[in-house]
Amino acid sequence: MIKLNAAQLRKGLQLTDYRLRQKQKAVSRKRNAIYIILDNVLDTYNIGSIFRLADAVAAKKVYLCGGTATPPNPRIKKASINTTEWVAWSYKETTVEAINELRTMNPKLQLVAIEQSPRAVPYDQFEYKLPIALVVGHESDGVSKEVLDMADAIVELPMFGVNKSLNVMVSLGIVLYKAIEKLLLSGRK
């Protein structure tokens, strides 16, 4: 498989025969049983970057919920470098609706919220399991209480500086790659 750099991806998918074949390969490639849920994430650059992250880990699907903007959106397109074209996604009016859909399809789904909470455990000490859905929330308000109550677990990143939190996409990236390290790279599936 040919990997494209950011400049090539930004040019968009001009569907020549070659580009069409590449898009078909990307869409049909094996996906990991990882779902990403955005609970009212508002910043379109965060949304686009999360699509890039979803592509990088071969996630099955991204759920955009509530006030989260959806493609097509020029800012999402720019930040995603067109990964919205092949990463599966859907919009749900509420995050609860997305969770219920996922749990119906995957009764063994592990729902993990990434949030600061008295219930939270350190992200690197948690036992991740597939299939898994990771939830990130609004940039200022975080994951909603209703969703936190539905979560099987809440994980958080330690903060040692003056700032009390990290960017939503950065936090998701750190947790996702820790989950992949524990689940996929260690030989467990």
Automatic annotation (TrEMBL):
Instruction: Name a single GO biological process.
Output: tRNA guanine ribose methylation
Write down the Pfam families for this protein, in alphabetical order. Answer: SpoU_methylase
Give the protein's recorded name: tRNA/rRNA methyltransferase SpoU type domain-containing protein
- Indicate the segments forming the tRNA/rRNA methyltransferase SpoU type domain, all copies: 34-177
Recite the UniProt keywords alphabetically: Methyltransferase, RNA-binding, S-adenosyl-L-methionine, Transferase, tRNA processing, tRNA-binding
Would the keyword Transferase be found if you checked this record's keyword annotation?
yes
> Which residues, if any, are the signal sequence?
none
Respond yes or no to whether keyword ATP-binding is given for this record.
no
> GO: which molecular function terms?
RNA methyltransferase activity; tRNA binding
